[in-house]
Design goal:
Its main location: membrane. This is Autoinducer 2 import system permease protein LsrD. It is a multi-pass membrane protein. Keywords: Cell inner membrane, Cell membrane, Membrane, Transmembrane, Transmembrane helix, Transport. By secondary structure, this protein is mostly helical. It has one domain: ABC transporter involved in vitamin B12 uptake, BtuC, CATH 1.10.3470. 75% of the residues lie in helices and 0% in strands. The protein has 16 helices and no strands. The protein is globular and about 70 Å long. The protein starts with a helix and ends with a helix. 40% of the residues are buried.
Length: 354
């Protein structure tokens, strides 16, 4: 291990020790994730009091229906970003999975088989991303920008400008239906199941500890016995699979399979994950913060739409939140390092001056 790698591993270890050298209440309350949860509660209270119609039960239903793809894709994206990688192809994979589902139904396949075929396409697409990143050694940013265009091109090429709308009424109704006696749509059930699975995987298994270790220092993780390449490959496959699942839902939610479905969705997912406290440099993040951030973006969008604010302004506000979250995290990190830096002794200062 080189001197630079040793220094990086030492810094990461010191950071972990410092993070757990504080009282439990400070580790739980004084975090970015808790700040996002508090901001979400504040925005909900203000919107309910000032925006007409926001407090209606139907608003919650449509809010959850709208942000369900972001919530779903945000789960694997959190793990991908914690390792220090990124997947920008998720929005295009949603569109491609939607088109594959539509083409399968148009070709006479049962909807269930067409949906399974779309999920298989998601697995293959995620494995392709993972292969280029882990085996070929290409940077994930460049790879997924390329596959973003590739998957979108395949989606548009398969259907052109046409749309497939002949889906079984039972499935399209189920995608928009609410749990009996509540205003909560059924899509929250598979989301909660996946949330539990990913939470256990990330926070309570050796695999999850390896994910954090890779983000802190992939070389130190490798020397600790973590299979870095296999871990990243699995995460990219999961990202493709869940994105395809979101694509099937997106198709049923709007009753239409089009090549331009979910255009730009990847930016909303990245915004939710980063705003939720996941470091863009890897090694840090909690799933509950990402869920809270996705809900915050959904609440803001819903309230602003009810206030007759245009979509362009909503996108600007989302972008500002994302930039502020990144800048704030960097500033706080710099301040913490400056505060923890040991004071210079007179001898060291004289030696430097000499």
């Amino acid at each position: 291990m080189t001197e630079t790698e040793t220094e990086t591993a030492t810094t990461a270890s010191a950071r972990v020790v410092r993070d757990h050298d504080r009282p439990l209440w400070r580790r739980v309350v004084l975090t970015r994730e808790s700040a996002i949860v508090a901001l979400l509660i504040l925005v909900v209270i203000v919107a309910s009091a000032t925006v007409r119609g926001f407090g209606q039960p139907i608003t919650l239903t449509y809010l959850l229906l709208d942000i369900a793809p972001i919530l779903l894709i945000g789960l694997p994206m959190t793990l991908v970003l914690i390792t220090g990688e990124i997947d920008l192809s998720v929005g295009s994979m949603v569109g491609l999975a939607s088109v594959v589902t539509g083409v399968g139904v148009q070709a006479g396949l049962p909807f269930e088989l067409a949906a399974l075929l779309a999920l298989l396409v998601g697995v293959v697409g995620g494995a392709f991303n993972g292969f280029l990143v882990t085996v070929v050694g290409l940077p994930s940013l460049a790879v997924t920008i390329g596959t973003l265009a590739l998957f979108r091109g395949l989606a548009v090429g398969l259907l052109g400008t046409t749309a497939v709308t002949a889906f079984p009424q039972a499935w399209t109704s189920l995608a928009k239906a609410r749990i009996a006696g509540t205003t909560i749509p059924y899509i929250t059930v598979p989301f909660l199941i996946l949330l539990v699975i990913f939470a256990v995987l990330l926070h309570f298994t050796p695999f999850g500890r390896g994910v954090y270790a890779i983000g802190l220092s992939k070389d130190a993780a490798r020397f600790s016995g973590v299979d870095v390449e296999r871990t990243k490959l699995i995460l990219f496959v999961l990202s493709g699979l869940v994105s395809a699942l979101a694509g099937v839902y997106y198709t049923l939610r709007f009753g239409s399979a089009r090549g331009d479905n979910a255009t730009g969705l990847e930016l909303q997912v990245i915004a939710a994950v980063v705003l939720g406290g996941v470091s863009v440099f890897g090694g840090r993040g909690q799933l509950y913060g990402v869920v809270a951030a996705a809900l915050l973006i959904g609440v803001l969008s819903s309230a602003l739409r009810l206030a007759n604010v245009t979509s362009d302004v909503i996108n600007i506000i989302t972008g500002v939140l994302l930039v502020l979250s990144v800048v704030t995290a960097s500033v706080l990190t710099w301040l913490q390092r400056a505060r923890r830096r040991p004071p210079r002794t007179p001898r060291a200062a004289a030696s430097t001056a000499t």
